[in-house]
Amino acid sequence: MAPGGGPTIRQEILSRGNLPKHVAIIMDGNGRWAEKRGLPRIAGHHAAVESVRDAVNAAGEIGIEVLTLYTFSIENWNRPKDEIDALMALLESTLRNESLDLMKNNVRLETIGRIDELPDSVQEAIAESRERLSRNTGLVLVLALSYGGRQEIVDAVRGILAGRPASAGDVDEATIERHLQTSALPDPDLLIRTSGEVRISNFLLWQLAYSELWFTEVLWPDFRAIHLEQGIREYQERERRYGRVRAPTPVRSAR
Questions:
Q1: Could you tell me which residues are beta bridge partners of residue 109?
Q2: DSSP string, the chain
Q3: Bridge partners for 110 per DSSP
Q4: Which residues are catalytic?
Q5: Distance (Å, rounded) from C-alpha 138 to C-alpha 106?
Q6: Is residue 2 part of a domain?
């Protein structure tokens, strides 16, 4: 119960029932979080691990089926080498250290992106974690690594061309979707971005076509379960029409 005896946000969203199946998050604000505290940028990335842990645990408890985290973008390779090296080391250690908790929580791990561009040691940690968690049946945690939405579509088109379709007329939306790395997953129902930035930054460009977007000023290292719950409650209050008109409200006749 919330203070005062009322229901908590989690109780409210669970009682409504129309939960998003797939939530995607752009985890933004690590560097600014560190700079505000006079710390090196990497300190913000280290602090963000707790936010990831809290979001994953909460998503599983609420009943979300898929949680996709924008972990390292194609554009992030343009950062200073020492920051990239520190990020890769943190990613590897986090994958290895969190594996036991993910197993206990029945989480399955998947990845999207150009994984072959990551350091060998990171690729090995990913492969080991995916294998260890592969038989779990709960939340599917998807890490977007060396990922870009445009690049994913390019790779999908290359895959289609490699299959040599008979003509351009053989390529439709379903053809492209089958060649996307997310082909086995539902499209995100809800996209959350932290830190106050209002853009999608080359993330899941195809898949976000009809997603609900929710932006929060909270910097990612400060993001906790309560913020995820707030985003889900906002999602539940919207009407998803997919281009259709709103159903007319019945007019009551006067008596």
A1: 141
A2: --TTSPPPHHHHHHHH----SEEEEE---HHHHHHHTT--HHHHHHHHHHHHHHHHHHHHHHT-SEEEEEEEEGGGGGS-HHHHHHHHHHHHHHHHHHHHHHHHTT-EEEEES-GGGS-HHHHHHHHHHHHHHTT--S-EEEEEEEE-HHHHHHHHHHHHHHT--SSGGG--HHHHHHHSTTTTSPPPSEEEE-TT--S-TTSSTTTTTT-EEEE-S--GGG--HHHHHHHHHHHHTS---TTPPPPPPPPPPP-
A3: 142
A4: 28, 76
A5: 5
A6: no
Q: Take residue 228 and report the two structure tokens written for it.
A: 């995820």
Record the tokens describing residue 83, joined without a space: 């920051």
Those residues with Cβ within 8 angstroms of residue 156's Cβ, 6 or more apart along the chain or in another chain: 176, 179, 180
Of 223, 250, 170, the C-alpha closest to 47 is 223
CA angle 53, 57, 58 (to 5 degrees): 115
For residue 250, is it within any domain?
no
Q: Identify whether 10 is part of a domain.
A: no
pLDDT tens digits for range 128-162: 999 999 999 999 999 999 999 999 999 999 999 99
pLDDT at 247: 59
On whether residue 11 sits in a domain, the answer given is no
CATH number at residue 160: 3.40.1180.10
Q: 232: number of CA atoms within 13 Å, CB side?
A: 28
pLDDT of residue 245: 63
Contact 222, 51 (CB under 8 A): yes
Count of domains observed in the chain: 1
Could you give the CA distance from residue 204 to residue 182 in angstroms, rounded to a whole number?
A: 9
Range of the domain at 123: 17-236
